[in-house]
Give the backbone structure.
Amino acid sequence: MIAWHVTIAPSWFDPSTAPPQITPFGMLYALHDALVRPLPGQKMGNALAESWTESPDGLRYEFKLRRGLKFHNGDPVTTEDVKFSFERYKGAGSTELQAHVRQVEIVDPLTHPLPPEGAVARLHDVLRNDRHRGGLVVPKKYLTQVGDDGFRKHPDRRRPVSSSSATSPGVEVVLEAYPGYWRRAPNVKRVVMKSVPEGTSRVAMLKNGEADIAYALDGEDAENVRRDPRLSLVPSKHASIYWIEFGDQWDPKSPWADKRMRLAVNYALNRKAINEVACLGFCPPAWVIVPRVMDFALPDAGRALRPHQGQAAPRRGRLSQRDRRRRVRADAAVLHGGRGRAERSERGRHPAEDAHRWSAPPSSPPGGEEAARAVPRRGRELGQCRQPRGSVHLFQGQLRLRRLSRHRRPLPCSRRASATWPSARPCSTRSSSSPSIG
Amino acid sequence: MAKREALLHQIQQLTIDRVMFAPIMDYRTLRGVGPRLAEHTLDSMPLVPFPSLEDMKLKSP
């Protein structure tokens, strides 16, 4: 079982309509195959194409299919399917791509040349690109019979696993191994991909053996996995990066048009602390928006964006060791209504139930006014107050920390906190969505 | 290739010199792996954060 952090949208089953993100590829690569694509140990390897050639002027590519390829329904994979898939693609960049392809020819059932009109990009790069799915091959005959909607419900393809059922659309997909896959017969015969939007729930499933892989764990949830000796935490190495974009910098009336403002933001960011809190130290600070794992990323970039001596505010955004030790850990235990002992949250029988429950307001709204209390923590009195958007403020005297990761304690605001943050609402709603991987 | 590399470096340097963005961090999504898996294959395909399903292995029962 693989616990996903997002809803598994049916549009992800179809390469022609999947959104231009990396996340749908977790499904697309399970269901479909391409002429060329990333393979173990290779950034780009021959998949359905046994071989390919590029003309000296870079304007003509010829792909030769492997012999004996079959879709799951037994239909042979032919160059007709490749041509059909390429021309059917309607996703991101399709207009530009198809405008630069003068002609798609079929030499024979196994040979398929694609001559691009201009060398705007190397075509095989485009066909395997993580944001482009025109190179994924779908079965023309089957798709013509069932139509686009029918295909998205039951995509038939020739990858190692197949969608035998979509027991709950958007929530769960069951995949069965295809022993005739060209690379090898899969070792695992059945894979269930389940949408589990709540990170703590994914960790709980990992701990009790319900899930074998849990995607997209941040801060506290990842820490929870790291603490468990039975589990392992695996950081990805894919091309993804976080940055702030100054959208108004082009408006001369905006303060963001001033380069000094944008520089001040760069100086104010404590990238190291963000990495430690949100990513457990696995996400290296960035100074340019091209991920360092990509070809041609500028090495050792961005000295100009780093504050020099005396330019950064002291301890900007940094938690001291002492403060960090006071972090309230997220766990499966929660305090209900801010009073009483910690209790285990009751999980539903199905992740969808949990997702639904946790996206709703608490059944017993916290007292807010009357429930002022401090949470004793290691002999000290720390207060905490849930804030809108799911963050939590801790306070002790003048100390106030804002947590970066979500927290799941629906504790009430105290009188003191209400006076300090009059705009803060009593604990009410919480966000249940997690960011996309890519 | 050298020309292409130089051009791409120049574009990136311009974004820095003009302070067009505030880059924060390269994102490494963290995945939890349970004890049943002998080989998770999560990073076997370069730049792809998903497992190579056909290579995945469970531990022997």
Observations:
- Chain A touches chain B through 91 residues (CB under 8 Å).
- The longest helix of chain A spans residues 140-153.
- DSSP finds twelve helices and 20 strands in chain A.
